[in-house]
Write a structure and sequence with these properties.
The chain is α+β, with helices and mostly antiparallel strands. 27% of the residues lie in helices and 13% in strands. The protein has one domain: Alpha-Beta Complex (Amidase signature (AS) enzymes). The longest helix has 14 residues. The radius of gyration is 17 Å and the shape is globular.
């Protein structure tokens, strides 16, 4: 059994699963071992029994089948903390799962390994809160990984996990990506639905992921984009994000 998490991208991890070189359970356990040993403070919640059950039943034929991913603290998962990174809401639990998280786990096959830290309400471009303390940059732990998706950036860049969710209104994907050497895309507004809580946040906010490769993010958008009736601003589905990488258009 491998005792360290996969250091490549998510696409190559799925390929390793399919070849039988490692298993989703092994990868998830390695992820949790790394989280426990880490001083980055990138994760604030890890539902280990639930995740291990999902990893045990993972379908590796799916786009992200069996890949452990992080979910930013501001993204909703039923039964998980819904604190908005604010100590005032420390005891609040989510009663719903966002469309993006549902699609990446149900359609994509990813395993929801845990919740990554964020700045409070996603309001500043560093990740340090009263609720969880400071999240550290894996390149230099005296520095911030940025924000608001700082826990996501620290986890992916720091070798804990290959992929995690993010959101961007004024740089909250792009700044952490830049601070930690990752790929971060702020997509067109509505490309991935924000349902069911579409009234939360302003019209500059888009959602997506931080990743170790362009192809990981392209595959993410292949899975997660597309109209949802609960989000009146969501756009029709577009295909070919990964397949058309490198295709030149006049």
């Amino acid at each position: 059994m491998e005792n360290t998490p996969w250091l490549g991208d998510s696409c190559s991890l799925v390929e390793a699963f399919r070849r039988g070189e490692r298993s989703p359970v092994e990868e998830l356990q390695a992820t949790y071992d790394a989280i426990d040993a880490s001083d980055l403070n990138a994760f604030c919640y890890t539902p280990r029994e639930q995740a291990l059950e999902a990893a045990s039943n993972a379908d590796v034929s799916l786009p992200f089948g069996g890949v452990p991913i992080g979910v930013k603290e501001l993204d909703a998962v039923t039964g998980w903390p819904a604190t908005e990174a604010c100590v005032v809401f420390a005891d609040v639990v989510s009663t719903h799962t966002s469309v993006m998280v549902d699609r990446i786990s149900r359609i994509g096959g990813a395993v929801l390994a845990g919740q990554t830290t964020s700045s409070e309400f996603g309001g500043v471009n560093l990740t340090r809160t009263v609720l969880h303390g400071a999240t550290r940059n894996p390149w230099n732990t005296e520095h911030t990984p940025g924000g608001s998706s700082g826990g996501t950036a620290a986890a992916v860049s720091g070798g804990l996990i290959t992929l995690a969710t993010g959101g961007d209104g004024g740089g909250s994907i792009r700044i952490p990506a830049g601070f930690t050497g990752l790929f971060g895309l702020k997509a067109t507004f509505g490309r991935i639905p924000r349902a069911p809580r579409t009234t939360i946040g302003n019209m500059t906010v888009t959602i997506g992921c931080l990743s170790r490769s362009v192809r990981d993010t392209a595959r993410w958008f292949d899975v997660c984009n597309g109209y949802d009736a609960r989000d009146q601003f969501s756009l029709p589905r577009t295909n070919g994000w990964e397949n058309e990488l490198g295709v030149h258009r006049e």
